[in-house]
Amino acid sequence: MGSLLAIYAFDELWNLSNIVRYGLLSLQHRGSQNYIVCTPGERVECFQGESIDEVSRGASKNVALAIIGNGSDDVLVETDSGRAVAVASERQWSEASRVLQAVSSSLANGGDIASSFAKALSGIGDGITPSIAVLTKRGELIVWRSTSSLSPLVLGSYGFDMAIATSESVAVDILGGEVKRFLKPGEGVYIARHLLKHFTVPTSGGYRGLCTFELLYLARHDAVVDGTSVYEFRKLLGKELAKYLESEVDVVVGVPETALPYAIGFAESVEKPFEMAFVATGGRKRSMLYSDPFEKIVAIHLKMNPIRRALEGKRVALIDDSMVTGSTIKTVSQILRFRVGVPEIHLFIASPPLVMQCPFNVMRLDMKSLLAANLSEALAKDYLEVDSLHWLSKEDIDRVASRFGLKLCGRCFGVNFFGCAK
Amino acid sequence: MRVLLIGSGGREHALAKLIRRSTLEPRLFVAMDYRNPGLEREAVEAGGRWFVVHTVSPAEVVKVAEEVSPDLVVVGPEEPQFHGVTDALRERGFIVFGAGSRCAEVEKSKVFARSLMWKYGIYGRLYFKAFTGVEEARRFIEFAGDVVIKPARQSGGKGVKVLKDTQAYLSRDRAEVKKTYVEKLFSEMEKYGDIDYKIIVEQRVEGVEYTSMTITDGDAVLPLPLVQDHPHAYEFDIGPETGGMGSIQGPGWVLPFITKEEFSKTVEVVTQVLKALQSEVRDVYVGAFAGQMMLTGIWGPTVIEFYSRFGDPEISNLVPIVTSDFLEVLDRAARRKLAGAKLSIDEERVTVVKAVAPAGYPDDRKLASGHPIHIDEEGVRELGCEALYASVELLGDGVMYSKGSRVFEIVCSGGSYGEAYERAERAVTYVRSLDGWPLFYRSDIGSRELLEDRIRTAERVRTIYSSRGRRGLLGKVLVWVPGEGISDNPLVGFVR
User: Fold this and answer.
1) Does the structure show a pLDDT above 60 at A73?
2) Cβ(A3)–Cβ(A68) under 8 Å?
3) Taking a C-beta distance cutoff of 8 angstroms, is the pair B412, B420 a contact?
4) Cβ contact (<8 Å) for A18 and B167?
5) How large is the ipTM?
6) Cα–Cα distance for residue pair A349/A386, rounded to 1 Å
7) Which of residues 9-28 of A touch B (CB under 8 A)?
8) pLDDT tens across B379-418, in order?
9) What does the pLDDT look like over A260-299, one tens digit per residue?
10) Which terminus of chain B, N or C, has less C-beta within 10 A?
């Protein structure tokens, strides 16, 4: 799953290298092993690599299209043979070449590029289209949010000087801009030196709702997703979880660092102290986004040096946002038991059990390694070495999502949607 | 009553419509720079005539006035004021509505306006530094922080660069842009020989903008309803600065995001400036005067700049709602008998104005010029809206061509923003180009989303300035440079 960052500076005075660099830095939590930056010119030039600094140096013009991906995402940017057009998509997408062809021939024939783009998209059949960004050699940009709307796309600005389109609002904040619009499903903009066109393309893929994991895990706490504060959403789920507390606990602990707002909400509700329990080494790593199991466990271990004196001898309510394979929780419980010495661990998961693979390939979930789909509750408790195990119900998520006016895709949890079914 | 209107654009078309409704049975004469078909029609229908002249030439305008011998002359735009047209007309004994050149300095020179506010200690003033030479400016800008760079002279609502600089990690990139921009702006400003200072660097503020227009005879000040303009070229407040892509007004005298207290504070500021200005230039201000304001966390109501005329497109919002005799008010102001005059408006209605512009506007006027434009006025009228002709010229072939700026302003009203918005959205589609050249307008103006966003921003800003006010910090921005001490200078940045 890739994330997009497209910047159009209306004044040619701007060199976007450093701006792209900080923009990508702010999106790093969405997957961090692969960067591509494209710029216009005689031909579209694309720079690809694993170092933000090196890749963003390429963005030395006033227009740039960048994408950030994970190691296993192969080709997220395609260019035509003459390198007149580049199409970047969030996920590998078999129809990218059709859009590329349409825009490329429109460019060659002096046609209306935005219309050709829209026409090509609306002709594409079934399947879930990802969000897309297009750059032409003349420096026109198109950004379009997938009709499925599984992932967000926001439009921001900086003064009179820039338009910024990106997968997460934090990039606009970090670049000193202001978020102007959460693009709606199928909504796009075409930006050129003297024109900005706003359009909507319905595709037959259909509306899926936002991926629940966007709010549960992927976005930063400081992000705003389709108008919803991620932090508030997480805190409220934590409060919901509190009603499942049946035993006495002394402290509330969140698995770093996504689960911290959940734990804060939980602690507030049960009126027990929230404790900072672990300190990370070497910057923030998103363990869930690694596909290599060894790299993943290394990332988990580096996040988890415990603050022993705060927890020793205490009964712990341990909060996490979700549980996929359980390997993170297993690691945490082993640290709490053997390195700290806690007598009880009560585990609270701020989402329902994951029982299905993601049919849209947004989240990489492997059916045979999903803990909840393979282990009985008793077995899971013994494996994880926890005294009790609680999940939010589907109804809980549904209620919270409705409260924020959200419609969320819940396929991996075994339901079609949570929240407002529009 | 014989009325001569000077000016060529959408603002003058709005004024023509307001004037023609008078019970004083006006015969309307228009002196304009090009054949604006809308103004032409208003003049002919009102039993008058139209003249094509250089409206910035005192001699040419005086000649028209002598031919027409009007009871009242209304000078619409600022440039004729700057060039002494108003003065020349008054010298010849004409009764004129419009600021004289000395008073119009408040719009022409941003340095004069800012200095005036500091000299008289007027509320809502911002820090600034002005430059006559490029070297000095370049040296200063090296260390400037969170600032706005502007041409020091009024130049058609263009050339403003807002460079928010609150992140040190991007400060150097912005400093580079500032330096190059200062040089570029200096070379562009060289064409203006009528001003010493070429550029001005100001404290950057954020918040919600609004325009407070007034009519004055030098003593009495008659406030008009608040209007909000939209300077960004494109949807969602994105893109380059324009002269205004549309405006909203109502219901009543304030906007949904401005309180009555903020309105009266604004009028107080505008009135104080008028007083200070008149004693400074030793002239009487007769005409329209407006504050382009912003509600900010620093001051609350804060002055961005002044207009020595009606706002364009802001005056267009008044067309559907003024219920009393507008011409009578203009005439009383021109005769210095404004005291006691009242303006009534329909307080139940709201108005939405949308400008339509050719691609190329505002940064490449050449590209935006010379395109044949068509309007289905019947369609616009059926929706209860009015079309104001702005930057369009009727040529010998009977076709209208774009002149490089906004071609039409579409004025719609309704009992609610929803209603006015729907009408305006439909009405703008009746303007099109005949050569397929793209025209654009902003469909977000007047929308519920944008209005809600303004209300949220205004509430945030109100929280800030109210708490600063309680602590006696309004207007103050303290900077501490260890070793040098505390100073009140927000123009200094991170780069040292």
Assistant:
1) no
2) yes
3) yes
4) no
5) 0.92
6) 12
7) 10-11, 13-15, 18-19, 22
8) 999 999 999 999 999 999 999 999 999 999 999 999 999 9
9) 999 999 999 999 999 999 998 876 666 666 667 787 788 8
10) C
